[in-house]
Amino acid sequence: MSYPPYDYPPGGYPGYPQYGRPPDHPQTTTIMVLGILSLVCCQLLGPIAWFMGHKARREIDHAGGMLGGRGNVTVGYVCGIVATCLLIAGVLFYGAAILFAVLDSKHTNSY
User: What's the burial of 27, exposed, middle or buried (CB within 10 Å: 0-12/13-18/19+)?
Assistant: First the structure.
């Protein structure tokens, strides 16, 4: 028994150009670079990567498969969260060190 040849749908699946993967979100690379830079050299970029990554992940999720790059956006998002936590810890540490130094100098000068 012979079966007829299977015909593929013309033009690929809906939402995917010719069986390829969907295009990445326009800010995917920017968010990933900001997240990595926020860990490596400038923690001030962390909140920016965190905010932009959250927004882009939400847009990718609501795009219904029409946008890709969620993995790279997640990398920048997580790096932004970690860098922000390090920034907060550093500010608290240096703030406490300055406070103790000021209190110590007042204590030693009072004699």
Answer: middle
